[in-house]
TrEMBL record:
Domain of life the protein comes from: Eukaryota
Pfam families: DUF4528 (PF15031)
Name listed for the protein in its UniProt record: Uncharacterized protein
InterPro entries to which the protein is assigned, alphabetical: DUF4528 (IPR029245)
Amino acid sequence: MIYLLLDKFFPRNLPRASEVLNCYLKQQNYPPWTSYFVKQKSVYNDQFKETYFINKTGGHEYLILRTGCFPFIKYHCTRLNEQDKKYLDEKFIHNQNLFFRFIKILNLGIPTLMYGIIGQCLITHVENTNFNLNIIKKEYVALIRLKLKNLIKL
């Protein structure tokens, strides 16, 4: 909890989670559906209270189901077609977001913690997402890549 408060008021030089999401979708050529994990400590979590929302990027709209599953953030992304957009109004999205947040609080976050632990076993592929950042962030991304290369050698 203290970490979240400190991170909120004193953000580190990390890419925002929303930037990583947009760049990942672009890098994958805007697929109809995709899913991925990102380490919580690798991004600034600017989507903290968002669980179910619409993300617009590159002329496409995606329905995002996002959950924190320590030590990761898990994203499920579905590209919306015109028929889907008719049924997903702002009020519906807001109510779904509240519903999912309520469920997480009700079950004390235990399933999401278990999902994160199991996720560590499930992740078999690591991919870098490239995006425009300032010099500090580029060094940070380069440092992560260097660490990943060293881990692969082991």
